[in-house]
Amino acid sequence: MESLLPGSFPQRSSSLPSGGNYLGETKFKVGHSPREVQVYRCRARKILERQCVVRFQRHHSGFSVKKSTIYQENNAKFLVHAASGQPFESESGAYNPESTSKSVKNALDAFYRFSRPHTVIGTALSILSVSLLAIEKLSDISPLFFTGVLEAVAAALMMNIYIVGLNQLTDIEIDKVNKPYLPLASGEYSISTGVMIVTSFSIMSFWLGWVVGSWPLFWALFISFVLGTAYSINLPLLRWKRFAFIAAVCILAVRAVIVQLAFYLHMQTHVYGRPPVLSRPLIFATAFMSFFSVVIALFKDIPDIEGDKIFGIRSFTVRLGQNRVSLEQLIHF
């Protein structure tokens, strides 16, 4: 066998550039190794490519040499990818917009679940409603009012994320039974990530309260921090969520007293510069929220009865039974 490619590339000295006869002179003899054959084939492809470019330039003189060079480079890239067995359009480390968008969406969804949005919404609505009680005349609805509300809501939501985040950090095993969709329980967040989030948000909350310069706001944050930590953290004489009555007192103190009085005084004294007078609407709102907070403290543990039983959390639902708590609360409600 004198040649592996007989007659495939006929010699045409008139149409080839200098060195064009090389293909005709390249013969694959029996004694050549497979590696040498592969090298010869690559050279043959390159020569064919050059020949196509030259013919393309002659028949289409309107195209520039630059386009021919790009054409040649693209073909060379194609040959390299074809020889390596890799897809032509995929390169390692290439930017993928869809993958990036999906990663961002997943990260936002995990943080959304971590922040416990129902508590965020409840906190924001409570602060807004009690802030409205400080309005005495129509002119009080001003940019000053909205700025004061925004400061209070931002600081309180950061503290809220600290409290619910700390609760998840100390309840990972319980949440694997009761709430496996939460990021820490599902493994989406590591413990170090959870610690970083709750630490950052607690620092930012106190920092904002200090920068605003409102003592009612700062004390509301501090008392919420203390009660939220004592409620969840597993240390001697703490982790008050284990005891149904003390847990209910913590919830009542924050939701019914701290939120109502402290944020009202924030608007009354810091924003409007008025004396700290407790109005009748504020007293009524505090009394109503006290009753409502007791209902929250009783109802919130009904879906968690299974995990609470396993890990020794003596909530009202565990002590009295799920059906009994639901029936009694519906009657009283």
Automatic annotation (TrEMBL):
Gene3D superfamilies: UbiA prenyltransferase. It holds the Pfam family UbiA. InterPro entries: AtHST-like, UbiA_prenyltransferase, UbiA_sf. Residues 1-20 are annotated as: Disordered. CDD domains: PT_UbiA_HPT1 (cd13960). Keywords: Chloroplast, Membrane, Plastid, Transferase, Transit peptide, Transmembrane, Transmembrane helix. It is found in: Plastid, Chloroplast membrane. It is a multi-pass membrane protein. Its main location: plastid. One of its GO terms (molecular function) is prenyltransferase activity. The chain crosses the membrane at residues 141-166, 187-210, 216-237, 244-265, 277-299. It comes from the Eukaryota. GO terms for cellular component: chloroplast membrane. Belongs to the UbiA prenyltransferase family. This is Homogentisate phytyltransferase. It comes from Populus deltoides. The lineage of its organism: Eukaryota, Viridiplantae, Streptophyta, Embryophyta, Tracheophyta.
